[in-house]
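Changelog note: in this version the structure field was regenerated for every chain. One regenerated record is shown below for reference.
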Amino acid sequence: MIGYTFVGTRDLAKAKAFYDPLLSYMNLPLCFEDAQVASWGDTNDKTVPRFIVCTHFDGQPDTVGNGTMTA
């Protein structure tokens, strides 16, 4: 079972503007955000995987795997 998927971004505001309409259409509202992270999911149903966009914590350049994780 997938619990969440992370994708990295250099621009959180642009990523939110892209993903929010798409995930809202899929009935996954924005459920958490701070300066580095935005998360969409159903806070009442823990079986629904979360989708998370975050800035790179390590400050390294973008790569295929930097900032991505599925668990």
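Spot check on this record: Helices lie at 12-25. The chain has a mean pLDDT of 88.
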